[in-house]
Amino acid sequence: MLRGMRPQILFPLFAGVETLKGVGPRVLPLVQKLAGPLVRDLLFLAPSGVVVRRPMTAADAVEGLTGQFEVLVDRLIVPHKPGAPIKVRASDETGFVHLIWFGGSAQHIERLVPKGQKRIVSGKVERFNNEVQIIHPDVFRPEEAGDIAAVEAVYPATQGLSSRQVRKLVQAALPHAPELPEWQDPAWLAKRRWPGWRAALGQLHAPAGEPDLEPDAPARQRLAWDELFAHQLALARRRRARQITPAPVILPGEASERLLAALPFALTGAQTQAIAEIRRDLASGEQMGRLLQGDVGSGKTAVAALALADAAASGFQAALMAPTEILARQHFQRLAPMLEAAGVTTVLLTGRDTPAERRPRLAALASGEARVAIGTHALFQDTVRFDRLGLAVIDEQHRFGVNERQRLQAKGDPRTGGVHLLTMSATPIPRTLELTQYGELDVSRLTEKPPGRTPVTTAVLPLTRIGEVAKRLKAALDGGAQAYWICPLVAESEASDLAAAEARAADLRRILGVEVGLAHGQMPGPEREAVMADFADGRTPLLVATTVVEVGVDVPNASIMVIEHADRFGLAQLHQLRGRVGRGSAASTCLLLYGGGDEGLGETARVRLETLRRTENGFEIAEEDFRLRGGGDPLGLRQSGFPAYRFADPIRHRDLLLAAADDARLVLARDPDLASPRGEAVKVLEALFDWRNDRPGVD
Ligand code: ADP
Ligand code: MG
């Protein structure tokens, strides 16, 4: 947002932290690193804990609690040995309290607790040789006693900046927070009984106990909702900005009819609905931005193919981009004959085309003779020119960066407007992730699988039964089946994991007496694709792989999936892996091997594997996976692309997120210019969180 557009009322919050009392040149960089450059950032630094100080005497001191003692300083004991702590003996009427400092200068400590003076000391009580001691106590002069809160917020600290110093700075910043106009809907706010914004901020920094730190404390909920609402507003605005970009009007035509007739199956209800949603967008004259979510095997390709045919039928060109050579070829082999039969000239573009193959294809695209291009990254290279590109379809969209998508979309013709975008993902994600990550996209979901699938039988076994597994596997392979065998990557050392996978491949080769392919993440791409292709074409019956089994590769003959150390995978990941089988008519099996013997199985791992045994519905599994992670897997969340929220926890605040998303869309629909009084307040909120310049679009 432009600086000049920031509402004046927010100026005190957007002042630099250096304007606060107590932030000098030494502390400034520390505060900036810990909280951020602005007064707002310091105020948005939520306490991470709370300490309750209890008045105690040496006689009744309780170990493990934080005590507060009024003592007389007796003497300072400076150690002879370097590295030993400096000790101060102090006492009250009931006995001694020893104060201990590791490091720090004797001079400084002497000034803090001068001999013969009274001090109030506070800290965690420990006992050593039956003596009360406090390591690194907080020290106060008796006349400061009134300032010592019995309950104090604890802040994240950093080297050189203690929690207490942070607390002081936050307290100094609080008076700078103005009363802001209310941006929440009055009825909603009354129902939730939340405090106003400024009061919530005050409560955030004055917890009365542990419960006030919980995500469901009223002040925390209020601030979380504000944050989520501001973020959803930013996404909703982006969505609107896209919608007002004119784009070609694409309508189904004869080519679409002929393609539909050529499909060897009838569309499922979910496919029919998805194509209807896509067609509504394509016909609107506004630029489509849609995510098609559906499990592996749910039939996304047929939906995409119809959209490609629609574009061609309306006189435009369309591109379908896949992340790997093998996927692009698979799409081309399946779709090109049907599209050609429907009168749509289709070309393949990959990085491996020879110049002689490439030249006529590029010419056909530039002239408009070819209506559909299917390919890899080769599609968005500068040498590729379209005559009238109207639609870009991106398969396995998470494998592409925002730039790559934009480079393809930029190949549109400015005279016909923006290029419609359809992205596809085989990783069902929970609603919450959908909203935080793809909030500016519209979403279609394929919740139903094509008929005629035999469900995959899933069994959970200890690794100790691997001999049995090998025997059954041999029988199946002898009968013409194909199988995957997955060896997980364990974070400790990639090299040793690789060695384990290689050793496993060698074992299986020996025991089973068959060709065994090995694919892993450290292989150069083309080499790995060659191994995958051998498996896809049935030349190798067994493929040992680390987790890199190409997403989206369709090997209908593969009917067995063995996953070693299944307990080390996440639920969604296991589901993805299992989705490699059960694609043909043969009954399929997934064997989840866990543990190395009597290790047993942890509770979460047990629930995960049990969920997998119970259901094959990717959306259900995604929600469950998300729930199981609880708030406790920040790393996992970040990997899933969550924005860096300060107050909101998308798992614990799931319902708030859903409500905030609804409200954001509603507010902008009713009052697009935010001109109403509530709209004006909403603008203040937007400026307060400043999400607008955050992560651009899909990634
Ligand atoms: P996805 O890309 O969603 O993983 P695909 O589009 O590759 O799935 O479809 C998986 C398989 O299901 C393909 O072999 C496809 O021909 C088949 N298929 C798709 N839709 C249907 C349908 N409605 N009825 C029967 N089979 C279908
Ligand atoms: Mg696919």
Shape: globular
Q: How far is it from the N-terminal to the C-terminal residue, by CA?
A: 21 Å
| Largest sheet features | 7 strands, parallel
Question: How many helical elements?
Answer: 23
**Radius of gyration, whole Å:** 32 Å
The strand order across the widest sheet is: 12-13-11-14-15-10-16
Number of strands: 22
Q: Architecture of the largest domain, according to CATH?
A: 3-Layer(aba) Sandwich
Task: Tell me the strand percentage band.
Answer: 15-25%
Plain-language structure description:
The protein is α/β, with parallel strands linked by helices. The protein has five domains: 1-49 and 159-178, no CATH class; 54-148, Nucleic acid-binding proteins (OB fold (Dihydrolipoamide Acetyltransferase, E2P)), CATH 2.40.50.140; 180-244 and 653-699, no CATH class; 254-446, Rossmann fold, CATH 3.40.50; 456-615, Rossmann fold. It is 38% helix and 18% strand. It contains 23 helices and 22 strands. The strands form four sheets. A seven-stranded parallel beta sheet has the order 12-13-11-14-15-10-16, sandwiched between helices. α7 (218-243) crosses α22 and α9 (269-283) runs parallel beside α10. The model is unreliable at 631-640 and 693-699 (pLDDT under 50). Magnesium ion is lined by residues 300-301, 395, 552. This is ATP-dependent DNA helicase RecG. Residues 281-446 form the Helicase ATP-binding domain. Residues 468-627 form the Helicase C-terminal domain. It comes from Brevundimonas viscosa.
